[in-house]
Amino acid sequence: MQTRLTINGTPHDLDADARTSLLDALRNHLDLTGTKKGCDHGQCGACTVIVNGRRINACLTLACMHDGDEITTIEGLGQPGNLSPLQAAFVKHDGFQCGYCTPGQICSATAMLQEVKDGWPSHVSGNLTGAMDLTDAEIGERMSGNLCRCAAYPNIVDAIRDAAEVKA
Amino acid sequence: MNTHTKMDAHHVMDAPDHRNRLDDMAQGILGTTMDRPDGPLKVTGTATYAHEDHPAGMLHGVLVRATVPRGTLDGTHDAAVLALPGVRRVLHGDRFLRNPAQGTANEAPVQGSREIFYVGQPVALVVAETFEQARHGAQRLVLQMTPGDAVTDPTADDIAVERDPDEQSSMGDLDKAMKDAAFSVDQTYTTPGHTSAAMEPHAAVAWWDGDKLTIRASAQMLKYNKNEIADSLGIDVRDVHMLAPYVGGGFGGKLGISPEAVAAALAARDLGAPVSVAMTRRQVSEATMRRSETVQQIRLAADADGVLTGIGHVARVSQLEDEDYAEPVTQATPFLYRGKNREIGLELVRVNATCAGSVRAPGEAVGLTALEIAMDELAVAAGIDPVELRRRNIPEVDPSDDKPFSSHTLEAALDDGAKAFGWDGRKTKTTDGDWLVGSGMSSAVRVNMIGESHARVTLNPDGTLLIETDMTDVGTGTYAILTQIAGEMLGVTPDRITTVLGDSDLPESAGSGGSWGASSAGSSVFLACERIRQEIAKTLDCDEGDLTLKDGIATAANRQVPLAQVLGDAPLTSTGVIEPGKTSEAVRQATFGAFFAEVGVHRVTGEVRVRRMHGSFAAGRILNAKTARSQCLGGMTFGIGMALTEAMIFDPRDGRLVNGDFGEYHIPVNADVPQLTVNFVHERDPWANPMQAKGIGELGICGAGACVLNAIHDACGVRVRDLPATLDRILDGLPEV
Question: In what residue span(s) does the Aldehyde oxidase/xanthine dehydrogenase a/b hammerhead domain sit (chain B) (predicted)?
Answer without folding.
Answer: 44-149
